[in-house]
Amino acid sequence: MLRAAASAAAAGALASGCDPHRDEDRGPARATGPSPSPVGREPHRPAHAARPPTRVPGLPVQIENGPREARAVALTFHGRGDPKLATALLGEAERASARVTVLVVGDWLDAQPQMARRILDGGHELGNHTLHHRDICALPAADAYAEITGCADRLRRLTGTIGSWFRPSQTRRATDLVTQLARKAGYPHVLSYDVDSLDANDPGAPAVRRTVLDAVRPGSVVSLHLGHAGTVAALPPILDGLRRRGLRAVTTTELVT
């Protein structure tokens, strides 16, 4: 079952962002159509409009967290991996009336275009996590810009906007150059985070839960990943732990505006 803990942890922990060696980063999983919920047929959901890029006057260009007086946090998911696991995770969030932000990889949308609408129809938020999930801060300017705009183009084609946020790939923080390129592409802010769940290393659901709940604070932006069974299993206890502290899981735009 998806609520069971994932297999033993992979060696080492990635402290600076997405792990480029994880299976989910080698290429998008392919499927022939939308995947059913593991607990049954997906209920009909009303259509939700995609939000344009979020602009918050007074906030820095690179955002790591929201206001600390907020009684909310933003759970943000790097968007790639098995669409069945992604659908299961979204279902867990919705059962707890939580809303999340998914930063999608463009070539995943090429293989799983239905996931853009599935995310939006759940009331969640979409953003840009580059086209191919390359080490964007190490790329020449032209290649880095193509990574940003390539994903933006896919989001625009599928949803009508380029997404609410841009998050750079394989790094926690963008360089000045990548920040400038993101703004040129239409993103006023670059979305970082202050809590790294380390779930991409598959340490198991209990470890993911502990890592998040030990570090989270009011206003935190938490980095998590789609495509990992341990993350799906960890989400309900994470949401329960937040609720016990009087914290709600909201989209990043809701957190900072």
TrEMBL record:
Record-linked InterPro entries: Glyco_hydro/deAcase_b/a-brl (IPR011330), NODB_dom (IPR002509), Polysacc_deacetylase_ArnD (IPR050248)
Q: Where is this region: Disordered?
A: 1-62
Ranges of biased composition (kind: Low complexity): 1-17
Q: Where does the NodB homology domain lie?
A: 71-250
Q: Where is the composition biased (Basic and acidic residues)?
A: 19-28
| CDD domains xrefs | CE4_NodB_like_6s_7s
Instruction: State what protein this is by name.
Output: Polysaccharide deacetylase
Q: Which organism is it from?
A: Streptomyces nigrescens
